[in-house]
Specification:
D-Maltodextrin-Binding Protein, domain 2, 3 domains, alpha/beta, elongated, about 300 residues, single chain, Arc Repressor Mutant, subunit A, 12 strands, eight-stranded mixed sheet
């Protein structure tokens, strides 16, 4: 077995067909088919089943692919470490951010990192669940995870700062006259909320419970930008980290009383390499409390 065969199998699982996977990796389709068949013969199992919608991993295939993904990621990191010099980083960096946190800080830090090391390839995705981020980290899939501190946070996490939450109100809302909104003054408001298993909805649940506010739900959304836009149009009010307020909506955001904040941490993979260490240092330099600047901007 070879790492190339692992990469081919992962691509087939992602694309659902050998042809699409071959195009993705710029490989001849017959060659990829041959490599997949050879891998299955060597393992003595069937990795994929053909269905009306394409190729899907079998039960055994899914187990194999989980380990193959770890092996491929480890190989990429090893190559990146070998190529890293004092003035150059190359290879792939896989980063995940918990939905809503570091929405301004992470892009800023990554932009600086890429300008400094243009040969470094960065893959970023958002994940709403703390538990899933912790699971991905344990599997070795992630180089760096940016997340709110929670019960699943590892002991070796790096504290970056605190994200203060703000309430976003509809245009013309009477509470916009205040620099800081008293949560008790929102008792009659419906809320634009998030997916039930997300950290953001968990924060809102605690806020409503601690302030004896009714949990009146106007809508549930999956993205912070959507929540802000819907609140701006008067569907309800919403509560998001200050950094997650999109440009153009700052005038509708206000910090709240009692203040709501969450510590934000970075979790690096074991035996962290130079790329994730450099990103961590850039994240430390970012500003993590933005509610005051939002109020001044309004």
């Amino acid at each position: 077995m070879s790492l190339r065969q692992y990469e081919y199998a992962l691509a087939v699982a992602e694309e659902g067909s050998v042809t699409a996977a071959a195009e993705l990796l710029h490989v001849a389709q017959p060659s990829m088919s041959q490599q997949i068949r050879g891998l299955e013969r060597e393992l003595g199992v069937q990795l994929f089943a053909r269905t009306p919608t394409g190729l899907v991993p079998t039960v055994v295939g899914r187990a194999f692919l989980r380990e193959a993904e770890v092996a491929v990621n480890a190989s990429r990191r090893a190559r990146a470490a070998a190529r890293a010099g004092a003035d150059e980083l190359a290879g792939e960096l896989v980063v995940s951010a918990q939905l809503g946190f570091g929405a301004r800080q992470l892009p800023s830090a990554l932009g600086t990192l890429r300008r400094r090391f243009p040969r470094l390839e960065v893959t970023v995705f958002e994940e709403p669940s703390s538990a899933e981020l912790e699971r991905l980290g344990r599997r070795g899939v992630l180089d760096l995870a940016l997340m709110a501190q929670c019960t699943q946070t590892p002991d070796d996490a790096h504290h970056l700062g605190d994200e203060e939450f703000v309430v976003v109100l509809g245009a013309g809302h009477p509470q916009l006259a205040a620099e800081r909104v008293d949560l008790r003054g929102l008792a009659g408001e419906p809320w634009v909320r998030f997916d039930r298993d997300s950290a953001l909805d968990g924060v809102l649940r605690e806020v409503l419970r601690d302030n004896d506010l009714p949990q009146t739900t106007a809508a549930r959304v999956s993205q912070t930008a959507t929540a802000v836009r819907w609140a701006a149009h008067g569907l309800g009010v919403t509560l998001v980290p200050a950094s997650a307020v999109p440009d153009g909506y700052e005038h509708l955001a206000r910090p709240v009383f009692p203040a709501v904040s969450q510590p934000v941490v970075a979790v690096l993979r074991r035996d962290a390499g130079p790329a994730e260490t450099a990103l961590l240092e850039l994240l430390r330099q970012e500003t993590w409390s933005e509610s005051v600047s939002l109020v001044r901007a309004s």
